[in-house]
Structures are given as structure tokens and as C-alpha cells.
Specification:
mainly alpha; 3-stranded mixed beta sheet; 12 helices; 3% strand
Length: 330
Amino acid sequence: MTSVNSTGPSHPPTFLLVGIPGLEKEQFWIAFPFCIMYAIAVLGNIILLIIIKTESSLREPMYLFLAMLAFTDLVLSTSMLPKMLAIFWWGSREIGFVSCLVQLFFVHNFTAVESGVLMAMALDRYFAICHPLRHSTILSMPVVAALGSLVLLRGVLLVSPMCFLLHKKAFCQHRVISHSYCEHMAVVKLVCEDTSSNAAYGLFVALSVIGVDLTVITVSYTMILREVLKLSASDTQLKAFNTCASHICVLLTFYVSGLFTFLAHRFGHSIPQHIHILVANLYMLVPSMLNPIIYGLRTRQLMNKLAVLFQQRGICPMSMGHQMVLINYL
């Protein structure tokens, strides 16, 4: 049923989230690996935040951006996975209209924020390698804070109109969302009116965020590559490449799955729906799970602080000598 409002458009009181269309019987078992990935994501990102907050030696741009990324991953995964698990395990498919718009806002806003933080991290690597003497001056604490604030503000300003446009539309009696969470285009399909403005604005937001961020990232790493290839010593080149390796892994994880989801939703009509929804779900979870693992294993300072933290808590039985061997090996 729809709630009719004489002064405005009609909205359904609730939507029904299908989960993964075509895999309704398998969802109960699919939820277990999803839950494990979510637990790893939450634990890993919280540990990263604790280490960066408690260690004054990590108050550098790279680690501050990493803290922003960890916080973004926590919000992004938490905004959709608890409800998704409730659908998979207990069949709790209903979600209120306002709650759906709130979830949509958080998912799309913090996806844009994550892209912006990755762009800022690429700039940090560029200045660290191409302008090392000016790095701390250019990316001072106020500049890092301003970049983080601008990235968040950009997401809010771009995503808020999506929710506003949907709130102004009238919805049909059909209220089943063929998705595991309130994704923008999946909700737009339930609108009874012309949705060309919604689709066009959603495309504009995606291209604005991905286009701008990928352009900056590509230019930054092109300049880094040119600078590194000028170095004469091979060990120095290897060290420079190793500095960027973690970030490149995170970039590939985030953007490859993100571009597949974006293109499949608009142009991949031949792709089975359950494949599209599965990839969209993994797009929300896999980067959040892998980011702390990639940075934790690839960054020696973080590994060192993590080993010390675990030893202080009595969690890690290794001696400091064994810890240092492991850190140097990594």
C-alpha cells in the first residue's frame, strides 16, 4: 500500500529488499562468508585507527589519510551489511522509506568519500616522491584536514540531491527492491513518474567523482613513474615502487569492482542479475576488508606498532626478536 499525501507525492511506508535475486535459497549460506568479511573489516579498521591515534610517530599525511580511509570503510560497510545479514538469515526484508533514503545516502556518500581519500593518498605519494623536500610543507596538518573536509563535503553536496529528488517522486504500488540494500538506481526503478532526471543526475555524480578522482590519480602516478625511472640506482627505484605498491593494490580493488558495478547496472543487461548484485555487495565489503590487511602487511611502521601493541596486551606470544624478523621479511 502507499501512503497518499494530498500536498505531496505518494510514498510507500516500507520497501521490501529481495537480497540476491535468483539466489534466495542460497542466501542463508552466502551470509556466512559475508559476515566473516565484515568482522575482519571492522576489526582491522578499528585496530588501524587505534594504532594511528595512539602513536604520535604516525602523525604523517600518509597515516592520517589511512585513518580517514579506515573510518570511511567502517561507516560504508556498517551502513549496509547488518541489514543485509538480517535479510539473509532472518528474512527481515522490510525497510522504511526514510530509512531506505538514509541508507542510500550513507552508501553513496561514503563511496564518494572513499574515492576522494584514495585520490588524496595518490597526491601524498606524488609529493613524497617527486617533491620530498617540500612534502611536509605542502601537506601540512591543516592542509590534510582541509582535504579530508572537502572530500566529505563534496560527497554530501553531490549525494544529497539524489535523496531529495527521490523524495519528490511518486512511487507505484510495486515496492520490491531487487537488491540487498537501497542502491540509487534500484530505488529509482520503483518510481511511477519520469525518472530521466534521476538517472541523469546519478550518472553525473558517478562520472564527476570517478572521472575527477581517476584523472588526478592517473596524472599523479604518471609523474611518479617518470620521476622513478630517472633514478640511477635500482634499489632506490625498487624502494619507490614499494612505497606505492599498497596504494595501487587498494586502487585496483576499489575501482575495478566499482566500475563493473556501475557499467553493469546501466549497460550490462545481458549480465545475470544475481551476478550483478553479488559483485555490488562484494564491492561494498572487499575493499573495506582488504584495505587494513594490505596496508598493515605492506607498511613496516604499522606492522611494528601492531606487534608491540599485541605484545603489550599479551595477545602475541612472539618475542621482539621474532617480531623484527617477521617485519624485516615483509
